[in-house]
Structure formats: C-alpha cells, structure tokens
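Fill in residues.
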C-alpha cells in the first residue's frame, strides 16, 4: 500500500482539511471526494510529492491538473 493525502484550503465551499489514506493507486481518492461540493479544489499528494490539483466541476466530475 502507498500513502496519499488530499489537502484543501479554507474557501467558500468548506474548511481547510487534510485527508490521509493508503491505497494501491491514487484513484481511490475519488471515493473519498464524493462528499465535497462543486467548485471545491484540492491538492493530491503521495508522501511529499505533489501529484496534482483536483477540482470538482459543475457537472459533478473531477478535473485533474498536474
């Protein structure tokens, strides 16, 4: 298992927070993000390595930028 985290800054959609999880692949993060609001943006990490930013679109999908 690999160690990942998703971090969120405080914004109009919610408080700042960090969710840590262990998984074989980083795509497990999408199961954790089902509770987040449209417009919410976070940063996905593997350990100290930044994998990219993730933003929930109006369509309820997640846009990923590296």
């Amino acid at each position: 298992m690999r160690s990942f985290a998703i971090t969120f800054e405080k914004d109009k959609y919610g408080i700042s927070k960090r969710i840590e999880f262990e998984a074989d692949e980083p795509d497990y993060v999408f199961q954790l993000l089902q509770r987040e609001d449209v417009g919410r943006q976070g940063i996905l990490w593997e350990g100290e390595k930044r994998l990219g930013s993730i933003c929930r679109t109006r369509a309820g999908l997640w846009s990923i930028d590296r």
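The mean pLDDT is 90.
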